[in-house]
Specification:
Largest sheet: 9 strands, mixed
CATH architecture of the largest domain: 3-Layer(aba) Sandwich
CATH class of the largest domain: Alpha Beta
Distance between the termini: 23 Å
Mean pLDDT: 91
Number of domains: 2
Number of strands: 17
Structural class: alpha/beta
Strand order of the largest sheet: 3-6-7-5-1-8-9-10-11
Low-confidence stretches: none
CATH topology of the largest domain: Rossmann fold
Number of helices: 16
Radius of gyration: 22 Å
Length: 469
């Protein structure tokens, strides 16, 4: 089998740099292009970006390389500072550096779209007219830069297909001046009834420029068809590289406890999510506050910080800082300041310790594309209480491998949390059954499904070319 030559694109980069390329050159005196990431120091020079790109896209490309399916893949993403090209694990990262004068407009436009697609921002006059606003020009300009770079790389590498990730990159297929096959992977929730009427024709046109669209949940496929997508659709659950989640040592757990002031007899309830109102940390706090009197040793640990969009080394939006301030005020108002711990960003070792230390995890999202943190907690056989509005709820069998709750009802969450904390046999059964379910989201299964979509699409494309010769 000939190995596929793939170009993928995502807004969020695999790594965020703490130093500019010029500073890196001064530090190391000389650096080749592309820069070999193994020469740099993680935590000083760069950090891996939290979220789907490190948990899904990167493992996918690595596994497909290891299996001999891919050859020399290229990955395009937004990265305001750092090297233009970086080499890591056989993959070439190509960074688009959007001018700061356009970053604000781009960020505002994509956040407006994100809010509308999550049902937060209703059809106000600005939302309706977004496609005519200057901010949308910046959004289009960014996608144009990505598309031009993809075509430039294609002339050098002769790709077999293009694989575009997440809603920020949706217009790219319209801008790729090639008949080569194009796949789109949508990660956030998709409900066509939430899409403003004035956007629907444009979004349907963007989608229909792709040969295949992959969705994270079954119900999103039906919604996409109702919007007017005419191409092939596939459902592939998000996946994780399960082997990297290890059982932490006793010392690592103790170090985690010491760092965040967790006592030996505390019963830890864990929420892992980036700081964003849609993640529903306020729902978890309100539900938790209703049960603390009955469980005096319970502590709520809220782990996570902002996304790439919130980072000052990313797009620079400040919503994470604003949301954290509101959560701290809520904790104070509810009188549970001594019972709630905000950890900020956790290293992978600290995250492993958090899962090992907790008794139960909560996914409180108001609306969630999927929710891989549930799969992570199941790997540690922890019972999960899951928002019914999360995509991963499709995998939750209530009272068998997890508990579902209404994120708009703090009393419902409080009831489910009390049940798990009171019934150790139920908690154990939920964790064990959740562990069995987690296999549906292992990297091997996800890679096999996505690789087959790519191979089939390229085969069909080659067959069509032979017919028209």
């Amino acid at each position: 089998m000939n190995r596929l030559r793939l170009c993928t694109s995502s807004q969020t980069p695999l790594v965020r740099f703490n130093l500019s390329y010029e500073d890196l050159v001064r530090k190391y005196r000389a650096l080749d292009q592309p820069v070999d990431l193994s020469r740099l120091v993680e935590g000083e020079d760069y950090e891996f970006t939290a979220g789907g790109v490190t948990r899904m896209v990167f493992p996918l490309l690595k596994r497909m390389l290891h299996e001999g399916i891919l050859a020399d893949p290229h990955w395009i993403s937004l990265n305001p500072i750092g090297p233009e090209k970086v080499a890591v694990a056989g993959i070439t990262l190509n960074h688009v550096q959007l001018e700061r004068s356009r970053v604000k407009g781009y960020g505002y436009a994509k956040e407006t779209m994100w809010k509308a697609l999550h049902g937060i921002q209703k059809e106000t006059e600005f939302v309706d007219s977004l496609l005519w606003q200057d901010e949308f020009v910046d959004y289009t300009y960014y996608n144009r830069l990505c598309s031009e770079l993809a075509m430039q790389l294609d002339r050098k590498n002769d790709f077999d297909l293009f694989y575009v990730n997440d809603f920020q990159q949706l217009p790219m297929a319209h801008m790729l001046h090639t008949l080569k096959p194009k796949i789109f992977r949508w990660h956030i929730p998709f409900d066509e009834s939430l899409i403003p009427e004035m956007w629907r024709q444009s979004l349907a046109s963007y989608f229909n420029a792709y040969d295949v669209v992959i969705m994270s949940c079954k119900r999103y496929l039906k919604s996409l068809k109702r919007l007017g997508y005419k191409g092939k659709t596939h459902h592939v659950y998000p996946y994780i590289e399960q082997d990297i989640y290890k059982k932490p040592s006793h010392g690592e757990v103790e170090e985690f406890n010491s760092k965040f002031g967790i006592r030996e007899d505390d019963r830890v309830v864990l929420v892992v999510a980036r700081l964003d109102p849609m993640k529903g940390q306020d729902r978890a706090i309100k539900g938790f506050a209703k049960v603390v009197k009955n469980f005096p040793d319970a502590r709520l640990v809220v782990a996570g910080n902002g996304s790439f969009s919130s980072s000052k080394r990313g797009i620079g939006l400040s919503k994470a800082e604003r949301w954290l301030a509101k959560l701290r005020e809520l904790v104070k108002t509810l009188g549970v300041e001594d019972r709630v711990i905000f950890t900020g960003h956790l290293t992978h070792k600290e995250l492993q310790a958090a899962y090992e230390r907790c008794e139960v995890t909560i996914l409180p999202s108001i609306l969630e594309g999927f929710g891989l943190v549930v799969i992570e907690s199941w790997l540690y056989k922890k019972p999960a209480i899951v928002s019914s509005m999360a995509g991963v709820a499709e995998l939750v069998r209530h009272e068998d491998n997890g508990l579902l709750f209404n994120p708009d009802d703090p009393n419902d969450l409080a009831k489910k949390l009390s049940t798990v904390l009171s019934d150790q046999s139920l908690a154990s059964a939920l964790g064990e059954n959740g562990f069995k379910t987690s296999r549906q989201c292992f990297i091997e299964r996800g890679m096999k499904a996505e690789a087959q979509v790519m191979l089939d699409l390229v085969d069909r494309s080659v067959s069509r070319q032979k017919v028209f010769r």
